[in-house]
């Protein structure tokens, strides 16, 4: 960093000296000097940018590695969207029993959907890509992952804290197969397109 700042200072001095030249060829000399200093300045700026990017990457490198590792097992965009939607639905279903039980059920559902839902979506992707044939892979992956998630959600809500466990599981039983079908179809179609290209 010190080397970069020293070079910038020298370029500044050089360009100031160039502007003080007078005479018949002064414009040509000034333009030449300024062009050279601008090229040097651009090279130094590029070097400085690389140093800054390398330093900031090293700071966040550990966090980035952790997120990349976790994203192999959890589909974050789908997990976040599912957690918000399902948490709000389950909270609304249980709101008649008071805000505390509704909040407990909503938070349990949101946490489950974020963690296990994100993992089950990754599992869905693996199953749909592992089985040959479009229709067969879609049916097997959607049915197996839907049954698994419905059973887990019912077990989660059967634990203490959810006033209406069966009613809280109904949105998952209705929306999970539809959502999993859409995601599996989209993944299979995207993979087929990329393999053709």
Provide a concise account of the structure shown.
By secondary structure, the chain is mainly α. The protein has helices at residues 2-19, 26-71, 76-93, 99-130, 134-158, 165-196.
Write the layout of secondary structure elements.
Blueprint: H1 2-19, H2 26-71, H3 76-93, H4 99-130, H5 134-158, H6 165-196
Helix pairs in contact: 1-2, 3-4, 3-6, 4-5, 4-6, 5-6
Word description of this protein:
This protein has about 200 residues and is mostly helical. Helix content is about 85%, strand content about 0%. The protein is flat, with a radius of gyration of 30 Å.
Overall mean pLDDT score? 77
- Roughly how many Å apart are the termini? 45 Å
How many individual domains? 2
Tell me what portion of residues adopts beta-strand conformation: under 5%
Q: Secondary-structure element order, as H and E?
A: HHHHHH
Spatial extent as radius of gyration: 30 Å
Specify the number of helices: 6
- Name the poorly predicted regions: none
| Helix proportion | over 70%
Secondary structural class? mainly alpha
Tell me, briefly, the overall form.
flat
Largest sheet: none
Number of strand elements: 0
Write a concise keyword list for the protein shown above.
single chain, about 200 residues
